[in-house]
């Protein structure tokens, strides 16, 4: 069973030491990915603790990013 993560819990992870974001109703801990993100860490920090789905869709992400999204989510109904 998937772990249910509340919006309040996600909202606590919004600084450089712990960055969680929501994309398509799934929660991702992207803290270790900050320095590797092709768009830079600032763009991830802007949506830290929030839903980043719109930003994810607005950018033409690679197929690899979309596959990683399906594999690495913590929950399929996060909130």
UniProtKB/TrEMBL annotation:
<dbReference type="InterPro" id="IPR001199">
    <property type="entry name" value="Cyt_B5-like_heme/steroid-bd"/>
</dbReference>
<dbReference type="InterPro" id="IPR036400">
    <property type="entry name" value="Cyt_B5-like_heme/steroid_sf"/>
</dbReference>
<keyword id="KW-0479">Metal-binding</keyword>
<dbReference type="InterPro" id="IPR050668">
    <property type="entry name" value="Cytochrome_b5"/>
</dbReference>
<comment type="similarity">
    <text>Belongs to the cytochrome b5 family.</text>
</comment>
<protein>
    <recommendedName>
        <fullName>Cytochrome b5 heme-binding domain-containing protein</fullName>
    </recommendedName>
</protein>
<dbReference type="GO" id="GO:0020037">
    <property type="term" value="F:heme binding"/>
</dbReference>
<keyword id="KW-0812">Transmembrane</keyword>
<dbReference type="InterPro" id="IPR018506">
    <property type="entry name" value="Cyt_B5_heme-BS"/>
</dbReference>
<dbReference type="GO" id="GO:0016020">
    <property type="term" value="C:membrane"/>
</dbReference>
<dbReference type="Pfam" id="PF00173">
    <property type="entry name" value="Cyt-b5"/>
</dbReference>
<keyword id="KW-0408">Iron</keyword>
<feature type="domain" description="Cytochrome b5 heme-binding">
    <location>
        <begin position="2"/>
        <end position="79"/>
    </location>
</feature>
<keyword id="KW-0472">Membrane</keyword>
<dbReference type="GO" id="GO:0046872">
    <property type="term" value="F:metal ion binding"/>
</dbReference>
<keyword id="KW-0349">Heme</keyword>
């Amino acid at each position: 069973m998937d772990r249910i993560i509340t919006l309040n819990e996600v909202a606590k992870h919004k600084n450089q030491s712990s960055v969680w974001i929501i994309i398509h109703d799934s929660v991702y801990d992207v803290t270790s990915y900050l320095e590797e993100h092709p768009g830079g860490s600032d763009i991830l920090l802007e949506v830290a603790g929030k839903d980043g789905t719109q930003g994810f869709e607005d950018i033409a992400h690679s197929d690899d990013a979309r596959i990683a999204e399906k594999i690495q989510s913590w929950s399929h109904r996060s909130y």
